[in-house]
Amino acid sequence: MVKLKEITAFLESAVPLDLQDSWDNSGLQVGWEEQEVEVVGFALSVSRTVLSEALREKVDLLITHHPVTISGVKSLVPFKYPNNLFLELAKKGVAVYSLHTNLDVSPLGPTAIIADELGLLDRVPIVTSPPYGSLGTLPTPLSQRELFFKLSEILEKDVYRVVGFKPENVVKKVAICSGSGASFIDLVAGKADVYVTGDVKYHDALKSIDLGLTLFDMGHFGTERLFYRKLKELLAKAFPSLKFKLLCEKSPFEVV
């Protein structure tokens, strides 16, 4: 049986914790080093639904992209979110390990996975230090419509939105920042034909139009849910005895 400390040491060698932003809370959220792990579950975030399925599937370790909390926990009470999740996880013996901004800047992270799926060439980060985002050239130019539908096949379902959409315009250069990348709009404008990200706000959209930049807001969930793919491959090779479960999640947003 594999111990939790072996898995966390492996993850921290592949995606070091010192890569995370100073405000972040990546790493072991719940658990103890000597805990034995047989089943590993993956989820973007810890929620009541995810926790319930983890218990049904007898998950010992839950690996997430989003930490259970970033701001910290001052009390463990059953009626306050997310403190109630910490309490329930500890009671049920489910360990949680999160890889957040350290994974975002890693070649194993969701931005890199999307860039790989598109086959982007000559990639450079949008921001160099730390290396957030990816800017590259499509192997074959696509129309904006073709690129949008290609992305909708690659990514998880979410509420997709577009800004400055010109369906027949040719796209050669694409910028990507999974999750929330609106703060990089100024850096991308003039360098990419389309910027793929999530969590775009109203005034971000207006700025993008003014700069002549087309935005594909494919959702925070949509652009990050695939975070687990490369991690799972590495873990499966390093620990052949482990079993893996991708836990059911969906975007919290719906169109009415």
Strand and helix layout:
Blueprint: E1 2-3, H1 4-14, E2 27-30, E3 36-37, E4 39-43, H2 48-56, E5 61-64, H3 83-92, E6 95-98, H4 101-104, H5 110-118, E7 121-124, E8 134-143, H6 144-154, E9 161-163, E10 170-176, H7 185-188, E11 194-197, H8 202-211, E12 214-217, H9 220-224, H10 229-238, E13 243-246
Parallel strand pairs: 4-5, 4-13, 5-6, 10-11, 11-12
Antiparallel strand pairs: 1-3, 2-6, 7-8, 8-10, 9-12
Structure commentary:
The protein has 10 helices and 13 strands. With 256 residues, it is an alpha/beta fold. The protein has 2 domains: 2-104, NIF3 (NGG1p interacting factor 3)-like (Udp-n-acetylmuramoylalanyl-d-glutamate--2,6- Diaminopimelate Ligase, Chain: A, domain 1, 3-Layer(aba) Sandwich); 110-223, NIF3 (NGG1p interacting factor 3)-like (Udp-n-acetylmuramoylalanyl-d-glutamate--2,6- Diaminopimelate Ligase, Chain: A, domain 1), CATH 3.40.1390.30. Strands 7-8-10-11-12-9 form a 6-stranded mixed beta sheet. The chain has a 5-stranded mixed beta sheet with strand order 2-6-5-4-13. Strands 1-3 form a two-stranded antiparallel ribbon. Strand 11 (194-197), helix 8 and strand 12 form a beta-alpha-beta unit. The radius of gyration is 19 Å and the shape is globular.
